[in-house]
Design a protein that fits this description.
Layout (H helix, E strand, L loop, with lengths): L2 E10 L4 E9 L5 E4 L6 H15 L7 H11 L6 H22 L3 H4 L7 E7 L8 H13 L4 E4 L11 H18 L4 E5 L6 H11 L6 E3 L7 H10 L4 E3 L6 H10 L4 E2 L9 H13 L12 H12 L7 E4 L1 E3 L2 H4 L6 E2 L2 E3 L12 H5 L23 E3 L2
Parallel strand pairs: 4-10, 5-6, 6-7, 7-8, 8-9
Antiparallel strand pairs: 1-2, 2-3, 4-13, 11-14, 12-13
Helix pairs in contact: 1-3, 2-3, 5-6, 7-8, 9-10, 10-11
């Protein structure tokens, strides 16, 4: 079997653009991965093109060899752009291998440790502005069976928070906790926005609400800052969505800088690299909770991974999405009581529809994390997909 082509598909999804990468072979078996990298799509497509130049003509089943050689030969190693492109291609190669053998990818990685996986939802708050509105939306999500909610209550804040801003954020958290009681876990997102003393202040204020975790309290480029917050935090700290290799995680583990780790399958090297990260985390008894706010292909790949990691803890997923999510792939999720069942179709268990992808071309989207617009109103038509 030989690789004959590699094509990216950039699909507008309102918040950002999904980037699917499809690898084709001379035996008619193709595979799909996802490299969604918010606001850096042009650079990502260039990296995908460089990988195509390497991969065409080679055996797609030699996954470990290709990962090693592409990473080695990049010379400018690591970083979001290279690793996201490599992650998508690696996923697609596993998809091809699973299809060629007629088995789901998890079967190739040791079989299932989990038949279903618990989820927490992101995006459930869309359109909410006031604490009361957040509370109402939280209650509505709970009534759909959701058992864990994540959101960023910190408005436009960056590095520091005034007392008034901190009070407003805590009022929002309080409204959600009051709305759902103790039946739902709360996960508080920091988006890597705060300096060390502010991160510690927030963590101490959050303790009264018993959150599952406080996520990424400090910028991701200094693990010592993360550790400084974690050492004084009375609530668990999660981090890792902007770490890109097992070697990056080595430092986090040795420093014991986080209580939960959140590598992203679209950015941290794909399926096998995350499997390795999860295995090392297991030696430290650190739960594995993959970052996963992207598109349907990344979700399918992460479900395969979650199936075969004994220390898997909880998976992120979007609460609702654009209506055409159901058109651009054949995603078929089975959700019940806060859990998604692991699918058992060959490969990743998902296909992208090329014609439908082309109907929703690239659109410019800007970073909203420091504008207060994270709770912007969704498109007129928004679909629940579980």
């Amino acid at each position: 079997m030989k690789v004959t082509d590699l094509k990216p598909f950039v699909v507008d999804c309102f918040r950002t653009n999904w980037v699917f990468v499809k690898v084709y072979t001379d035996e008619g078996i193709d595979g799909v991965g996802e490299a969604t990298l918010e606001y850096k799509e042009a650079a990502l497509l260039g990296a995908v093109q460089h990988i195509k130049e390497y991969l065409v003509g080679k055996n797609p089943l030699d996954i470990e060899r290709h990962f090693h050689d592409i990473y080695r030969d990049a010379y400018w190693r690591g970083g979001a752009v290279l690793m996201s492109a490599l992650s998508a291609v690696e996923m697609a190669l596993w998809d091809i291998l699973g299809k060629s053998l007629g088995v789901p990818v998890y079967q190739l990685l040791g079989g299932r440790a989990n038949d279903k996986v618990r989820i927490y939802v992101n995006g459930w708050f869309s359109g909410a502005k006031t604490p009361a509105e957040f509370g109402a939306k939280a209650k509505a999500a709970m009534e759909r069976g959701v058992t864990a909610l994540k959101w960023d209550p910190f408005g436009k804040a960056y590095l520091t928070l005034s007392n008034a801003e901190l009070d407003r954020a805590m009022e929002c958290v309080a409204a959600v906790r009051d709305a759902v009681g103790n039946r739902v876990d709360l996960l508080i997102e920091g988006h890597g926005r705060f300096d060390v003393p502010t991160g510690i202040r927030i963590a101490k204020e959050l303790e009264q609400f018993r959150p599952m975790w406080f996520e990424e309290p400090t910028p991701p480029d200094n693990l010592e800052a993360l550790k400084a917050v974690r050492d004084k935090s009375p609530v668990p700290i999660s981090a890792g969505e902007r770490l890109y290799t097992l070697k990056d995680y080595k430092d986090l583990f040795e420093m014991r800088a986080a209580d939960y780790i959140q590598p992203d399958i679209s950015h941290a090297g794909g399926i096998m690299e995350l499997k390795k990260i999860a295995a090392v985390a297991d030696t430290y008894y650190i739960p594995f909770a993959p970052h996963n706010p992207s598109g349907p292909v990344a979700n399918a790949a992460t479900l395969q991974l979650a199936a075969c990691c004994p220390n898997f803890n909880i998976l992120e997923i979007m609460y609702s999405d654009v209506t055409w999510r159901a058109d651009v792939t054949n995603e078929d999720l089975h959700y019940e009581d806060g859990y998604i069942t692991i699918p058992d179709k060959p490969g990743l268990g998902i296909e992208n529809n090329e014609e439908e992808c082309l109907k929703h071309p690239y659109q410019v989207h800007t970073l909203r994390h420091y504008t207060g617009a994270l709770t912007d109103i969704r498109p007129p038509e928004t679909a629940f997909y579980f």
